[in-house]
Design brief:
The protein is α+β, with helices and mostly antiparallel strands. The chain has helices spanning 8-19, 29-35, 51-57, 106-111, 134-140, 149-155, 158-170, 176-185, 194-205, 215-218, 222-225, 246-255, 261-269, 291-305, 310-322, 331-341, 346-358, 362-385, 398-403, 409-424, 431-442, and strands at 24-27, 45-47, 61-65, 70-75, 78-84, 86-88, 100-102, 120-123, 127-130, 142-143, 173-174, 278-280, 286-288. The strands form 4 sheets. Strands 3-4-5-2-1-8-9 form a 7-stranded mixed β-sheet. Strand 3 and strand 4 form a beta hairpin. It is elongated and about 90 Å long. The termini are far apart.
């Protein structure tokens, strides 16, 4: 029997419960990860002991969810959730059981879990408890529900998104009966809170297989989460720089940026405005005028619906607005672009431009990447030389403009005029020169 390395604190908790004559196992995701050779992030424990018994066995506990049988055992600063074997009641809201009933049966407890790969238990004395072929499904690399998939999804509709998330995280396929059940019951996702949907979608996007996000379209879940995607699904782009429909280009672009929450959400939504901006010229070439602005507006609507924080939402929308901004590789053009896009956004702008290019036509890709590399080279040189990039970098301020007789809005207007001069020629950023220019502008 293979024995897994588990933390001393976890072993001690199991031993303490065993010493009281009760069963105890680590359970769920931590067992799955150990079998995959991955260090678990969390160590969940399930036991035959009732919550009050658990509380009586340890010096420090927190009543995390006594009504659901969960007690957090504190060992130093670390907390470990210990949950009593239970049977869930009806799920009238398709999200949480109306009530739970404690049981002495580990088998019944494992039966209520979502997927077979998450329904295994382990302790060093007994070894792996695998009643629903979880180990076999790990080896087959499939996601399948415990028992009847429709029952599991009717109980908790979030499990439909969790199936896609685990498929992306582990690079597993979703077993066909489980997949068909998602398609059949996709409407139930409307019972799940936007915050929880956002979390699952984000975990999918920042996984090693972010293109699996397309499963929300193929299963129909998107109709209740992001119906705005419908306009770009299968939309051809007859253009020399594109060889993929808009939706497939989008998934490729998502894959082509680093696993960062903001960047991948930016790429998921960057072309969503193309669905309503497509025109075709006399030569049969498609164009998508103003699609970044349209995409930004749609993205803001979607992100608000999914309850994103304002900081993330603003950053994603700003990057979408400028994702298609083309910059000549000259010092003057890059300085102006830095001012327009913002110095705090420019590094991410370069990343999303590269991601967008990597999802374009192969024949045009190297040409576009070379242009972007030249822009980045100029950008690095500008940073190293410390050139003026904004109002705060000017050698004059509003105080000097006030002394020259400017008031109110005129102060901002003259400072922006001076900034334009300096962006054209950084050598003009000297106090005496700028004061003279300001006096002349006033006259």
């Amino acid at each position: 029997m293979k024995e897994f390395r588990i933390p001393k604190n976890v072993k001690d908790i199991l031993a303490t419960i065993h010493g009281a004559g009760e069963e105890a196992y680590i359970v769920g995701g931590c067992v799955r990860d150990l079998l995959l050779g991955v260090e678990p992030n969390d160590w969940d424990i399930t036991t035959s002991a009732l919550p009050q018994q658990v509380k009586g066995l340890f010096n420090r506990t927190i009543d995390t969810g006594l009504e659901h049988g969960t007690v957090t055992v504190m060992v130093g600063k670390e907390g470990y959730e210990v949950t009593t074997y239970r049977i869930d009641g009806e799920y009238e809201d398709h999200r949480r059981p109306d009530k739970v009933e404690f049981t002495r049966s580990l088998e019944e407890d494992l039966l209520r879990r979502d997927f077979t790969i998450n329904a295994m238990a382990y302790n060093p004395e007994v070894g792996i408890i695998d009643l629903y072929k979880g180990l076999e499904h790990l080896q087959e690399r499939i996601i399948t529900c415990v028992g009847n998939p429709e029952d599991r999804f009717k109980e908790d509709a979030l499990r439909m998104l969790r199936a896609i998330r685990f498929s992306a995280k582990l690079d597993f396929d979703i077993e066909f009966k489980t997949y068909d059940a998602i398609i059949k019951l996709n409407k139930l996702i409307s019972h799940v809170s936007p915050e929880r949907i956002q979390i699952e979608l984000t975990k999918t996007l920042i996984s090693k297989n972010p293109a699996k996000i397309q499963e929300i379209v193929s299963t129909g879940l998107y109709e209740y989460i992001m119906p705005e995607l419908k306009t770009i699904v299968g939309m051809d782009q007859n253009h020399p720089y594109h060889e993929l429909p808009v939706d497939l280009h989008t998934y490729k672009a998502v894959e082509s940026v680093e696993a960062d929450r903001v960047l991948r959400w930016t790429m998921l939504l960057h072309d969503i405005g193309k669905g309503t901006s497509k025109t075709t010229d006399l030569d049969g070439i498609d164009h998508f005028m103003n699609h970044p602005i349209i995409s930004e507006k749609l993205a803001k609507k979607i992100l608000k619906r999914l309850k994103f924080d304002n900081k993330s939402m603003d950053r994603i929308c700003h990057l979408i607005r400028y994702h298609d901004h083309r910059i000549p590789a000259t010092f003057k053009s890059v300085r102006k672009a830095l001012y327009t896009i913002g110095p705090d956004y420019f590094e991410d702008y370069l990343k999303i431009r590269q991601g967008d290019i990597m999802a374009q036509a192969k024949g045009k890709r190297e040409e576009s990447l070379n242009k972007l590399r030249e822009v980045e080279k100029v950008y690095r040189q500008i940073l190293e030389s410390g050139q003026c990039l904004g109002l705060n970098d000017l050698e004059v301020s509003g105080r000097e403009m006030l002394d020259l007789g400017y008031k109110g809005k005129a102060i901002g207007e003259v400072l922006n005029y001076l900034l334009e001069i300096v962006l054209e020629d950084p050598d003009m950023n000297e106090r005496s020169i700028l004061i003279a220019k300001a006096r002349k502008w006033n006259s």
